[in-house]
Amino acid sequence: MDFYFSMCRGYQKDGMDVTPLEMTKWFDTNYHYLVPEFENGQTFSLAETKAIDEFIEAKQLGIQTKPVLIGPFSFLKLGKEKSTGFNRMELIHSLLPVYLELIGKLEDAGASCIQIDEPCLVSDLTAHERNLYKTTLSKLFMSFPKMRFVLASYFEGIEREADWISQLPLEVLHLDLVRDEQQLDTFLEKIPSTMALSLGIVDGRNIWKNKLEHSLQLIKKAKAVIGPERIILAPSCSLLHVPYDLENEHDENGLPGEVKERMAFARQKVHELVTLKELLNDSPSERAQKELVQEKSGRERWKTLAFVQNQEVQTQVAGMSERWNSVKRDSPFRVRIKKQQEKLKLPAFPTTMIGSLPQTTEVRKMRRQFINEEISAEDYTKFVHESIRSALRWQEEIGIDVPVHGEFERNDMVEFFGERLNGFAFTQNGWVQSYGSRGVKPPVIYGDVSRKSPMTVEISKYAQSLTTKPVKGMLTGPVTILQWSFVRDDQPRKDTTIQIALAIRDEVLSLEEAGLSVIQIDEPALREGLPIQLEKREEYLKWAVDCFKLSHWGVKDETQIHTHMCYAEFNDIMPAIIDMDADVISIETSRSQMELLDVFAKTKYPNQIGPGVYDIHSPRIPAVNEMTNLLYAASRYIDAGKLWVNPDCGLKTRKWEEVKPAIENMVAAAGILRKPPH
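Below the sequence we write its predicted structure tokens.
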């Protein structure tokens, strides 16, 4: 267990100091995974029997489960090389025997059906990768002639791979028909009579009810071609990405009844599969027929509800179609940065935070008491103000150049803003896993979005009044609010993002008018929303970047706009990042040892950049020399005059006893780099 946690969080004890594995997003979701690291000539062995033990435990309870394993190709493809001179995919020949051993043990334990998840099937494969896929999966499936294998992919269509997949010795192929229903026709034509189709017909990524009538049409199309005995009904992907049970929601103030009626969580989605199956019978049950009628009538009624539609917002969005060419800063970066330096007078290697400071037990307790009306608004405001005053005093004492107010009043970087925007609803228990034991509770965007009133202006003005240093205004960007919410399914995601961008713009201009000269608009999820397949990316990046620029359109040259991005593979989107034209971008780089900066150097990124030097996902306290070395490494990629010094991300989840020494070390590291070389 200690070894496992050291991979996840690092290890700093008894003279040992182990850094954790790099973490990144699982395809285009907000779920994170630890990136496997591979060495040239690496060998593999079965280190534990968790999959077998859990299968046996369920079997002893009388439940015959279907073990699910990440496939060998995707396991390697989603990792990274830690040494040069080899391709990690070459290791598949030494990895495959371990898979055969594991599956053999599962078969010996009584497993009769195993699902192999190969999500990388949806990516753009080279000819070599395609051949490697085919030979690896063929050998795996042929090694167990009595085992029923399900090959699953999701998040996109795989019809480009239909020819060779249809030739695999495979019993069941799973298709994500929510993301790409067009692929069904291709596979109905190509699969052999020995292969069944698992139709991913219920959305495993969003919380809206299934459009039963449309799903039935797709299922009946498949039924007419291959027959009902070769059809399995399933969610589009794992239900990990949606909350557990809608019946746990009872607060109509946060989640109005009309919105809840249109929703389905994991348990309800399983029920939808049962309903679809019953509706396919020659004599469907009365219950199933009633649900079909109710779902359709509810969807039609939804279009007429006044609290969903806002004509003024829709007019604004429509009017943007002719104005996009003018949505940009007044002057180029080289002009803006001179004006900003004259105003801010920052030193070399300026230090700042990304946003939040530790949300202690006391902070959460006071917020909860305020929500429950156990303390007055006056007492709560007094507590928040004192927390801000203390945080700013500490930041000034240690030498932070651009401090933050700490966000003690905020519950979540998306939910906080959603509560202050029209068109959002909120669950009490709609938690989904983000990484490890950390969960998030995404808000629900159900209608047109607009700002109710200023959201952060008063508290930002208060914070700025306590110091002569420029306090950074903290906002969440429109694409991230979209990506980290459950989004309405009755209009294009682009239109919803434009609405959010216009609302954030209102706030940015209000903050500027209130005297803030540094404003950060976080977009950690911009890369996350990138379509998996290359052909779909250009369109997404165009409107995503346009919406970021729209969110601060009209600010003065002297106002410095920051943005932040989480762990991601930036190679695919560097032209878009450059086009965003943020004055300063901060990114998570500490776990990658600054390797992520290579692409910024190769593309000659023109603006300023803050590579993270403190891994906030770990309780480790990095030493001064560790951060100094990271900054020296960063300066090999990026001109030192463009570098900022900051943690990887916000510090909300960390403890003060970790944060204070780590940030003090960070400031000390910046001080070392400011000294002229001997």
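The chain has two domains: 24-244, 334-674.
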